[in-house]
Amino acid sequence: MTPKALSVRAVRSVTLRGPLLTTRPTAYFISNVHKQQTRSFIPAMVARVASTNLLRYFGLGAVTGTAGVGGYMLFSDPDVEELTLDDIKVPELALHPSKGGMKDLPIVTNNIDDTSDEIDKPRLVIIGGGWGAVSTLKQLNEGQYHITLISPTNYFLFTPLLPSATVGTLDLRSLCEPIRKILKRVAGHYLEATATDIDFDRKLVEVRTKGTDPTDPSSAKSFYVPYDKLVIAVGSTSQTHGVDGLEHTYQLKTILDARAMKRKVLDNFEKASLPTTSPEERKQLLSFVVCGGGPTGVEYAAELFDMISEDLGNVFPKVLRNEVSVTIIQSRDHILNTFEAGISKYVEKRFSREHVNVVTNSRVQHIEPTKVIYDQKRVVVDDNGEKHEITETKEVEFGLCLWSTGIAPTTFSQLVRSKIPEQNNRRALVTDERLRLKGISDSSVYALGDCATIDNPHLVEHIMDLFQEADKDKDGTLTWNEFRDCVSNMVSRYPITENHMTKLKDLFDKYDIDRSGTLDMDEMRQMLSDIDKKMTSLPATAQVADQQGKYLGKKLKSLAMTARPPYTALDDPPLGPERSPVRATLAIAQAHESQYPPFKYTHLGSLAYVGNTAVGEFSGGFKMMGGLWALYLWRSIFLSEQVSLRTRSLIMLDWTKKWLFGRDVSIL
Amino acid sequence: MTPKALSVRAVRSVTLRGPLLTTRPTAYFISNVHKQQTRSFIPAMVARVASTNLLRYFGLGAVTGTAGVGGYMLFSDPDVEELTLDDIKVPELALHPSKGGMKDLPIVTNNIDDTSDEIDKPRLVIIGGGWGAVSTLKQLNEGQYHITLISPTNYFLFTPLLPSATVGTLDLRSLCEPIRKILKRVAGHYLEATATDIDFDRKLVEVRTKGTDPTDPSSAKSFYVPYDKLVIAVGSTSQTHGVDGLEHTYQLKTILDARAMKRKVLDNFEKASLPTTSPEERKQLLSFVVCGGGPTGVEYAAELFDMISEDLGNVFPKVLRNEVSVTIIQSRDHILNTFEAGISKYVEKRFSREHVNVVTNSRVQHIEPTKVIYDQKRVVVDDNGEKHEITETKEVEFGLCLWSTGIAPTTFSQLVRSKIPEQNNRRALVTDERLRLKGISDSSVYALGDCATIDNPHLVEHIMDLFQEADKDKDGTLTWNEFRDCVSNMVSRYPITENHMTKLKDLFDKYDIDRSGTLDMDEMRQMLSDIDKKMTSLPATAQVADQQGKYLGKKLKSLAMTARPPYTALDDPPLGPERSPVRATLAIAQAHESQYPPFKYTHLGSLAYVGNTAVGEFSGGFKMMGGLWALYLWRSIFLSEQVSLRTRSLIMLDWTKKWLFGRDVSIL
């Protein structure tokens, strides 16, 4: 190391001093100072206890508490840690970032928890803290990337169980894992802020903090975070369908939504119990309406019904049970219409037994403070025996209305799309099969999860390549064997086509229009064009985002290992904008990436909780509809999908608590 | 029963009809309809599972989950209940209450969960849902009183552990027990409303509901609740000491306070982690100030310190630890000044080691948005060696400030006091030794807990009685034996004097001024007058409220048993205002009450958590200061004091969770 480099380091590291808080001074104090005192105290205490009123304290507690507390004492010893008095070094650049970029904002090259000024690793920036982001993170190793995650919420939320938490079956906190804990393993950085823009040319993400005073927008600050690799995983927002009055409804996206909904349900029950509430108001307060018959809406309706019949019925006046109504308004002709028809029908039959009203073929027109107005289509037979479809406008009063009719892109996604001409899908950011954002040439930006969609491969455009590679004998036609090679080649290149490439012999025969026993170029073009039309995008589910995150995390790990920077101990990597070893690394990585297999989605199945049991369909055609074991399968599947041992244990505890004590019916 | 009475009943009961929600239709459905289906499904499923992707679901879950889920399935069978299709009768008067009283408001004589129109039991109304109210309730039996509890919050909060919940050591929900669950045992009624006034003449409590629209005060409704016996247990509010700027501070009274404080602490850490936060802002954000050195303030400071050093230090940038400061501002010269001096000093020494700053002899002058300004008294020695007390004005910046400087009466308490001329204590409602509100002649109103204080017995006023009863030989003086009888008589009548009646021989000698070996009337008067001056009121603690509640509950139960109404099966108790059997009952009860022993407080001890250990002093002079076992004693004491098995188990689970996974550091 040259003397110059040394002095640079010395100047660039400053030390913050102050009263150093130690990790476990308390435990240290106990174990060292008071051990003796405690020993001599105990016999004195035992002697005295009989003559004091202390025993009264134990009372009932002695019965239930002693065993628990006794066992507890054995294992709950606060652990003792050594004091560390090392000064903590903070990079000078983290304290006083330089300014730049289009808007001359601070460029945060270093964070206050970086241990040195030099960032000799590629900068990986992840926007979002949901399924896609966390699954990516969990695949990475420490030391491969300088990772920064930007999200306005500092916890990951296990969204599929949110309806359960909304009625108090699960504790909301059991569904959350702090992002900082997940990042700790890879020594990543977290910024509690919202991404507002991306400068793709300078590779800068513009972010905005919440501000010290939430009521004063000017207290929020903007800055840039530079990236070498960027992952966009910002999720989605609710689809409004242009309906007015959504401010009177609840949406089920966040912890705060879930808590507000629980409070509202219990509050309505309390209000309905008051003697000054009129019978009409009582009916309105206890009418729960769900707009949208997808899994979220159906699960919420089922959980709500369970809570009302199992828990609220016990503590609230019995008469209220007669006044409760739960209504699901669905635009299609069946609820759970992404599931197989048998499952939809099973759930509808179940609901009708339980007096959960399912209103189908109905579109919400607008929403008033306590009323949903909707148009219902119905087929009537006139006097001449002819069928007509008529539309009737109906209304239903509500005390609480959940709006769960699908997803729409966030403002940020829309902004990103508007900056890239190649992005032509209004519903999501388009990526290639390797999750690289379309329109960004250097593979520096990825998008996944709800905010992204994988582009249709447009097979017809690739017909020349596909055909010529397969046509080994160059006779201008594909024999059955050549056709099979062609298909397997195509599927490995575009895994999304796999579902359409079943029953190959039938396909071959179908498109062999001239019955020649071979397929010529025109016949193949026809087939590919038909497949192109059938291609649909992946559903916006946690399962897809999770698999995409795993894929991307593994790929990023593999790229980092392939293109490990050629540093030696003597090399002193330059600081600042050049960072040439990092650039070299990235060039190698980019070359390698095209060899890395594309993303392949494996549909494991769909599940929905429908009130003390579950329905589901799995790959291989296996279905489950109801039954006690379906409930347990549902529970074990979600347990196995947890991101941490902590949340897994907490959720098991919650189910046990619910079984022992029922749901929590305090307004919290 | 006369035909007339029969017809009255028929008219007065109406039946609400509607879709009757059944208790457990789901479980019923599973067990009856799908048992067969399930049985045939299972072998099919087992066969298929190997060939499907289902196994992937289990993955990691198989390792941790199988045992738990397996065991879970054994005991978590949803219980099956029979369908009940009985129509539920609601008293007509509950649906359409008659109007009356001073303000012509609805008088709620019946609730919608009453099973009949006639209320043939004395009406017991409890205002409040804290320690006093719940301890009273827990002593009562079903069927003795028609009980109505009025409180704006529908859960009981275990306040002594609130500081623990505020930092995430305990789950807030573990400290809550729904009032409706507690009331269920005695078939009581709960009204989510606030008592706003009492009409003592007509025996009506005026209450106000929250209103359907919280932003619109006109949606709130007022009505009267009639009582025969009334318990006022409304607690207290925070003492402001006339300090301006309290809106910038937090108070620790409710669940919402605790949650807001936790969010603020974590939010400040997130803001301090941002690179755009200046070092000065960082210091301010991480400065936590507690005004008030009582148990609440000290426990919060200790818990906060624990959370920062044990949990936040692990996930937030290390450098933040150097910037954290915790300050306690105390007006007296020691913190925990209700404890014995040795304990105060022990805690101060402990805090000084942990860099928790204790600022004593300081009064807060006013509070600015991020700054506490206070006056500190200090003794200085001038050049001539003379001591002067000087007052310096100082300030400390904060990111969060807790205001916990004692209690003050609520607006409702003040209103009640203003209506009764005999109530002359500005700090609390005054009761006699039997907890009966002073100034209410017919023993119909009780007050207890933080809102009440037991009147000083004014022994001097009773000297004639006491003296003459004891002076058996009527010689105008008390011998040593007569004096002892006199004291024991006095203590049983006024238990509050007991603490002052120790070392009787010394007392006797001290007041035998003429050394005659006997006490004459003047000497006794001097003694009683001195004792009167020494008499202090009971502290405003959960312990006092709890014991008062137990006393009152037992007394009310006993009164009900003594004066059971003389009904026979043939008697049809009249409805409406006369309700003479109830009146007769109450007259008997009132006569009996004067024979019932007065309330006697037994101080069990005081406890405070001071950071991974606890301090305490108990009756009998036993003290504990620090040590690991003190922590466990502290824990077991609080476990034994829980109001339900549910909260007791949940709190044990929470302590285990904390030990396993640390505190919860998501912003929730």
From TrEMBL, chains A, B:
Q: What organism is the protein native to?
A: Bifiguratus adelaidae
Which domain of life does the protein's organism represent?
Answer: Eukaryota
In terms of InterPro entries, this protein maps to:
EF-hand-dom_pair, EF_Hand_1_Ca_BS, EF_hand_dom, FAD/NAD-bd_sf, FAD/NAD-binding_dom, NDH-2, NDH2-like_C
Name of this protein: EF-hand domain-containing protein
State the organism's lineage. Answer: Eukaryota, Fungi, Fungi incertae sedis, Mucoromycota, Mucoromycotina
Instruction: Give the Pfam families listed for this entry.
Output: EF-hand_1, EF-hand_6, NDH2_C, Pyr_redox_2
In terms of PANTHER family, this protein maps to:
NADH DEHYDROGENASE, NADH DEHYDROGENASE (UBIQUINONE)-RELATED
User: What family is it from?
Assistant: Belongs to the NADH dehydrogenase family.
Q: Does the keyword Iron-sulfur apply?
A: no
